[in-house]
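2024-03-11 09:14:02 DEBUG pipeline.ingest accepted 1 chain
2024-03-11 09:14:02 DEBUG pipeline.ingest length=203
2024-03-11 09:14:03 DEBUG pipeline.predict start
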Amino acid sequence: MANIFDLFKQISTDSDAGSGAVEYILAGLGNPGKEYERTRHNAGFMAMDYISGRCGARIDRAKFSALVGEATINGKRVLLMKPQTFMNSSGEAVAAAAKFYKIAPENIIVISDDVSLDVGRVRVRRKGSHGGQKGLKSIQECLGTEDYQRIKIGVGAKPHPDYDMAAWVLSTFEPKDIEAISENYPRIYDGLCKMLEGDTEEA
């Protein structure tokens, strides 16, 4: 049976090359598969679903080991990405897209979960360390720099110090947690628009 990434390559066609239209990459991080849909690690995927719906785009084309779509947001042409590599290898998809479209790291925006923030709280960073988040670590390693922008969505700290971190980020959100995060999606979108203007501080 063909490897899923080989299928991605087959689906991607040469007609995409040289389009030159994409100015930014927006990647929401998560894990593929229904069993992960409402887990803490999939906060990035969840935000991307809101953003794509808000701008009338679909993230359903297989390319760069990811599901992708394109949208114009605040006058900028943006590649929307949901890497399908699983969280710890997210950088492979993001770096491949950046290379293809010749996108500089500062024009890459990544949305991820953050266990150091209370549920629903949002933090924007122009650059910085990965802070132990495995998807951000992979992106930093694959890009060779930490100078990419990020939107961090708080998913809450693990309930006690001995709780296994992997089990925590793969645990399912409570309905009240999803509500707290969902309430901030409009603010995330507004902040994204500011970032696309180059005004991360205002975002």
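2024-03-11 09:14:41 DEBUG pipeline.report Helices lie at 4-11, 43-54, 90-101, 134-143, 165-169, 175-182, 185-196.
2024-03-11 09:14:41 DEBUG pipeline.predict end
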